[in-house]
Amino acid sequence: MTTVPDHNIHCLSVVDGTFDDCQDIVKAAFNDTAFRDEVHLGAVNSINWARVLSQITYYYWSYLRVTDKHKDVKEVSFSVPTGNFGDILAGYYAKKMGLPVGDLIVATNENDILHRFLTEGKYHRRPIEKTISPSMDICVSSNFERYLYHLAGNDAKVLKGWMENFEKTKELTVTAELLANAQKDFLSARADTDMTLKLIKDYYENHKYMLCPHSAVGVSAIHQLKRISPATVCLATAHAAKFPAACSRAVDPLPQPPAELAALWVLPTRNTDAPNDLKSVQSLMRNRIAERVAVEEEEEKKSSKKTRGGCFAMEGKVNSLLVSAAILGAVALGLRMVLAKKR
């Protein structure tokens, strides 16, 4: 997004920040109701239920493709590389909606709070580790709280108690019974950097397919759990060409990137450094909005078009959170299309 020249796109780079820091700032900004209403704050990352809702369509679309090709397949399993638990939560809801889903596999890198919970029943926060799959470098999975609500028997009071205690102690441990219930919903596996690089190399040499580091974590989980079959799908998260430094550690020389992506590397970039502090980020947002409003007011004198608004991207390391409008209309249309086609 740093290459987008539009004046209503603003990239903030949080100094010494991680994904968790950025996510905490965004959540705090939403909890500041006066600020939220002042700037009309909205989110299109998975803080917003609309994002999770839109991702449900992935599972229906994939199920339709697999069962079209393999007529004997009745259930489709999914391995999902995840840090924030958003996309795999969408798979959980797709299954609850009636889609014939087999296993839902939570695939993590070294930042494995989800894997530890699903194997030990311990949701304990640890310091973040920098890995070659940075979009999964997350200590606290925002959407996991949504799943915990269901694990708590849809009891908001129980969930509130869990999360308040977690905020204080950075630890949540569930009973053996609740762990067993969670293990009925999800399998999990963890892939470290060496495992990830080996898999990228093996798949390129043996299948001529270049996995990105995140996707490789998902494929690794399938191998570890021995779920390799035409009825198992790994959700690929990005094109490998976005991560040349990591992928070149496994494959050298790298294949040529798509022309569209290669063109981005030479474009000028724009971003603003921001302190790892809520008030500082809010101040920057107010200033950018004021500047944009001034520009638009000048433009409106020359044109009848009104395009006032803006989108903020916040990054810590290379992770980003987008702040913009929801997309419920497109989501509803997508669900109607896939369900109509299946019928």
UniProtKB/TrEMBL annotation:
Spans traversing the lipid bilayer: 321-339
Residues in coiled coil: none
Record NCBIfam families: thrC (TIGR00260)
Pfam families: THR4_C
Similarity field: Belongs to the threonine synthase family.
Record keyword Transmembrane present: yes
Protein name: Threonine synthase
UniProt keyword terms in alphabetical order: Membrane, Pyridoxal phosphate, Transmembrane, Transmembrane helix
Highest taxon of source: Eukaryota
One GO biological process term: threonine biosynthetic process
SUPFAM superfamilies noted in UniProt: Tryptophan synthase beta subunit-like PLP-dependent enzymes
Swiss-Prot/TrEMBL cofactor(s): pyridoxal 5'-phosphate
The keyword Membrane is annotated on this UniProt entry: yes
Taxonomic source organism: Corethron hystrix
